[in-house]
Design brief:
Blueprint (H helix, E strand, L loop, with lengths): L29 H15 L6 H14 L6 E3 L1 H12 L1 E4 L2 E6 L2 E7 L4 H5 L6 E5 L2 E2 L7 H8 L6 E7 L7 E6 L1 E4 L3 E8 L2 E6 L6 H14 L4 E5 L8 H9 L7 E6 L6 E4 L11 E5 L6 H11 L4 E4 L7 E7 L5 E10 L15 H5 L1 H7 L16 E3 L6 E3 L8 E2 L9 H8 L2 H20 L3 H7 L4 H13 L7 H23 L2 H8 L4 H10 L1
Parallel strand pairs: 11-12, 12-15, 15-16, 16-21
Antiparallel strand pairs: 1-18, 2-9, 3-4, 4-5, 5-6, 5-7, 7-8, 10-11, 13-14, 13-18, 17-18, 19-20
Helix pairs in contact: 7-8, 12-14, 12-15, 15-16
Length: about 525
């Protein structure tokens, strides 16, 4: 899956030592039996064992027999996961990619540590604190570990810059680096705003509000909210975003579980977007917190939903923290939309393989291509709260307007070029060689969007590199069918590297069938 499906967290944490749980620790109890087994293995087993790993494996083993989203994470895994949701991490402030075993700076974060000392897009970082990171086959994770560090610490960077003979040395003082959860905000048509939310983290609400203010200043009356590929995040962030669109006391979502009494989350009436048309875009990778926002807007008849049935992740996890920084996330309840639909799709306890194959199975059954392949029983029929329109439960959110997956847009040849990173590597090389000339020729994105065309030489290089890796079009017809989408994707990548993600989506959205359907409906 393109993005990790983060559990939508209830913002609580419990300490096993102080939690109000009652355990029987006697020798005949299940816990006593588990403890005796662990002690016997640790003290009597023929080979040395790692006691910490033994316990972690036991926890994972228990959770594997439950639902697909109860999980255990080590302290390092927790740190990595929390950074994207908390909205910042400590580092040097560059966006980079590794091309030909060398770290290439794509962009520096505005007002970030690297920009302040003079590091530029196109620079190659070849060493960190006198340790070579180029030409040594170092993994991307190891490179990131060397670049990141506590705020206030310094990193000595050795840099190779095009046109400069000698290596350059920069001392960068690490600082808090913001992690944005909003991918793009712009006016997609006159009076129509567009905002793409990539995930729901600690800063999402503030980012959304800032984006809405910008769009309103440009005359926005109607809004497209793009939640395609949004894997979810914090419950509270989803509730706060949905609140902006709903009248007072409208139900946003409720949770209910065996040991967790029903809890309702309602709009407080302070929303700034309670008027104007709203369209929400979803697909099969829209999950969790993103489904909460979608369900709230659909069930309250505040807007319409366009795309394909969402993922169906509606399990509430409660984090249980351990002293070593690790964490167990235990499912304690389900999420329900305002009409009473359970967001969680069906699953069999302990059968994670079938659950993980669900998207593939949808494709094989034709659900992603043909709406008629989706069958709902009358028992799954629900009604929206104002207009009493029929909506269906059974897992995920079914859109009001179905848009099939266009299997012809991306040929097999195109998908293979992307999967092998041939496209991204060709783009990085092209930008590295032509950045200055492109910036000079296209000083504004508007000029770039109207006039720029992908040079044939870049297409030829990609086809040649594909052939080297035994990736070839089946025939001339497949090559011809590949070129329009390939050229559009490359143009979007060039725009991203010259400007930012906003410009990337301005280009790709013009070819996105779900976005085009939303624009058609708004007409």
């Amino acid at each position: 899956m393109k993005k990790l499906l983060f559990a939508a967290l209830l913002l609580v944490s419990i300490n096993p030592a102080s939690a109000q749980m009652h355990f029987n620790f006697g020798p005949d109890s299940p816990i006593g039996k588990l403890q005796i087994a662990e002690m016997a293995i640790n003290n009597l087993y023929v080979d040395t064992v790692n006691e910490n790993k033994l316990v972690e494996d036991a926890i994972r083993g228990m959770l594997d027999k439950l639902d697909p989203h109860s999980s255990y994470s080590t302290s390092n895994e927790m740190k990595s996961m929390s950074e994207s949701l908390q909205g910042n991490f400590d580092g040097i402030g560059v966006q980079f990619n590794v091309a030909e075993d060398t770290l290439l700076v794509i962009q520096t974060i505005t007002n970030g540590p690297s920009e302040k000392v003079g590091i530029l897009a196109g620079d190659r970082i070849v060493a960190v604190n006198d340790t070579a990171i180029a030409g040594v086959k170092m993994s991307k994770e190891d490179i990131m570990r060397r670049l990141r560090g506590p705020k206030g610490t310094k990193a000595k960077l050795s840099i190779v810059r095009r046109g400069i003979k000698d290596k350059l040395t920069f001392i960068v003082t690490r600082d808090k680096i913001p992690v944005k959860s909003i991918d793009a905000v712009y006016m997609i048509r006159p009076q129509v705003g567009y905002i793409r939310i990539g995930s729901f983290g600690a800063t999402t609400y503030d980012e959304v509000m800032q984006g809405l203010d910008t769009l309103k200043s440009h005359g926005m009356k109607d809004l497209i909210i793009d939640l395609q590929e949004n894997g979810g995040g914090y419950l509270q962030a989803a509730v706060m975003v949905a609140n902006e669109f709903l009248p007072k006391n409208d139900l946003v979502v409720y949770t209910n579980g065996r040991k967790s009494p029903r809890m309702d989350y309602r709009a407080d009436g302070s929303g700034t977007m309670r008027n104007g048309r709203v369209i929400v875009l979803i697909n099969e990778f829209t999950a969790s917190a993103a489904e909460i926002v979608t369900g709230a807007i659909q069930d309250n008849d505040r807007g319409i939903v366009v795309g394909r049935r969402s993922f169906g992740k509606g399990l509430v996890q409660r984090p249980i923290d351990f002293k070593d920084g690790s964490e167990m996330r235990l499912t304690i309840a389900h999420y329900y939309t305002p009409s009473g639909r359970c967001i969680q799709k069906p699953y069999t306890k302990g059968d994670s393989k079938d659950y993980e194959m669900d998207i593939d199975n949808r494709y094989k059954h034709g659900e992603l291509i043909n709406k008629d392949s989706i069958h709902f029983s009358d028992s799954l029929k629900y009604y929206t709260l104002r207009e009493h329109r029929v909506v269906y439960g059974g897992g995920g959110i079914m859109p009001d307007y179905f848009v099939p997956l266009d299997t012809m847009q991306y040929t097999k040849f195109h998908r293979q070029l992307s999967a092998k990173s041939i496209l991204i590597n060709a783009d990085l090389k092209y930008i590295d060689n032509n950045r200055k000339d492109l910036k000079k020729k296209y000083p504004t994105f508007s000029k770039f969007e109207k006039e720029y065309e992908i040079p044939q030489s870049l297409i030829d290089d990609i086809i040649k590199e594909g052939a080297k890796q035994n990736i070839k079009p089946k025939d001339d017809a497949e090559l011809k069918a590949t070129l329009p989408a390939l050229q559009n994707q490359l143009k979007a990548l060039v725009a991203r590297d010259l400007w930012d993600m906003n410009e990337y989506f301005k280009i790709v959205n013009e070819q996105n069938d779900v976005v085009k359907k939303a624009l058609q409906l708004l007409k």
